[in-house]
Amino acid sequence: MEIPRVKVAVIGGSALSGSGFPGEFDGVEVIEDGLEYSTPFGPTAPFTHARLEGVEFLFVPFHGITPKIRNTIPDSASERVFYVLMKAGVKKILGCALCGSTNRLLDPGDVIIPDGFVDYTTRRAQSLTRSLIEKGIQVEPVMYRLHQPFCPELSRLLTEASLEAGFQRVFRRGVVGVSEGPRLESPSEIQIRYTNQGIDVVTMNLIPEVIFAREIGACYATLQLVSNYGEGLVSEEWEGPEVFKEFQERWRRHVAEAILRALRRINPDYEGCGCGKHRWRAIFP
Ligand SMILES: [Zn+2]
User: Is the terminal CB of the chain with fewer CB neighbours within 10 Å at N or C?
Assistant: First the structure.
């Protein structure tokens, strides 16, 4: 199946799952659904190719993870997803995820548009080009800086869009800690590894999206929705999966609305943010 030339992509996460995004929202025209592309890492999760007010975009749900495709190496979900986004020529990527608070000021329902991350994962791919070279695929090895890991322009659009979509508190900066999962953290881990280190929220699926975006020369920003307090952070009892499910169902259409509002304002050719300047051809392969 041929990968279309598209400049914009949305990588869905748990915050968006079950919302009906993108097909069930006004103004979205689905060009084709259920697109499983073949990649050197194996087939992808099903993508949707859609159009919103003349701008085409690709959408893949839940970070490209399925019961058969995991987010861990080898042949991880992100390697597959970003191979497609690279071939499509994608320049702007919006992500989203649910997260736990590790900053005592944050409550469930708060949105963080982060400006920093700390990677605590242990089984994620760290370089798409290196993974491709290991598969015998000829690609130019790249190096890149991460002094501005999240696109300031896309982050600005997401901040405005989140407020308009009905979120009461939207923070335009914050540090995300990325845990390997799939388990949640213990109270000691929340305290020692996250809160004590100045980390605001913890999630499982920002790595390697944020670094792969830079690697393929695309801008990236993400909406992180606090769904629960980090274990032991406040005295409130954790009420388990039922409350979590209710929370997700209550907010998922708001998340979809925020992503759509940001999508409408993206200029796919805008380069003034400077994100594309931070990568270059590596001297050593
Ligand atoms: Zn940018």
Answer: C
